[in-house]
Specification:
mainly alpha
């Protein structure tokens, strides 16, 4: 736990000092959603109908922006080797850095989501489902992203490879996240989408840290 807490504090401190990356994620989220709104036109009915899908799609793409640097910075300056040589278990390292990523990027998206949804004229009945689905879904994005970031570590054009690797894996999260919001807007039950997102989160927590840790060990050898 000492290693976990130390890595978590270090990454959060670095994120606070370098707030530009978090601001870039929020800016991309807002700008991409605005472009969708301009693309479909000013009709409120059209915008409200697609709002759930747009918010989830743009949030997913925004989260993807910061994943390439999850391990890359520490890998380039040798910090990653030092952390592993210090006796910190790779799984603990992955969990700490993934949690730090979610606390900065995922929470930032949660805070910005209501404003973005308001701009897309999402009906009021959908806001609760939007926040719950993002709360369940964004940790999955970070956990899957950790696996992808570890696999492409040290590769040329890693950002492109990371996108190609992760986007297909993100599709189920996108589908059920948007379905939960759409169901709430239409007055339908949202139990099934929440259950699927919860199951995916448990599965990701069970498998992703070990997969990312294995990829990290291969990358530094």
């Amino acid at each position: 736990m000492n290693g976990f807490n130390a890595i978590l504090r270090r990454d959060l401190t670095l994120a606070i000092r370098n707030q530009g990356e978090v601001m870039m994620v929020i800016a991309f989220f807002a700008i991409a959603a605005t472009l969708f709104a301009f693309g479909v036109g000013p009709e409120a009915n059209v915008q409200s109908r697609i709002a759930s899908g747009v918010v989830w799609t743009t949030a997913l793409l925004a989260a993807l922006l910061s994943l390439e640097r999850l391990f890359a910075v520490d890998y380039d300056d040798g910090t990653l080797d030092q952390l592993l040589l210090s006796g910190v278990e790779p799984v603990v390292l992955v969990l700490a850095k993934t949690l730090a990523h979610w606390l900065t990027t995922g929470v930032a998206l949660l805070i910005a989501a209501p404003a973005v949804a308001l701009g897309l004229q999402l009906p009021a009945t959908g806001y609760g489902a939007l926040m719950i689905s993002l709360l369940l879904g964004t940790p999955i994005l970070s956990l899957l992203g950790a696996v992808g970031a570890a696999i492409v570590l040290g590769a040329r054009r890693g950002g492109v490879l990371l996108s190609l690797l992760l986007l297909p894996l993100y599709i189920p999260v996108l589908i059920f996240g948007a379905a939960a919001v759409e169901g709430a807007v239409l007055g339908m039950t949202t139990t099934a989408p929440y259950a699927v997102l919860g199951g995916l989160l448990i599965l990701a927590l069970t498998l992703c840290p070990w997969a990312a840790a294995t990829a990290l060990k291969h990358a530094v050898e």
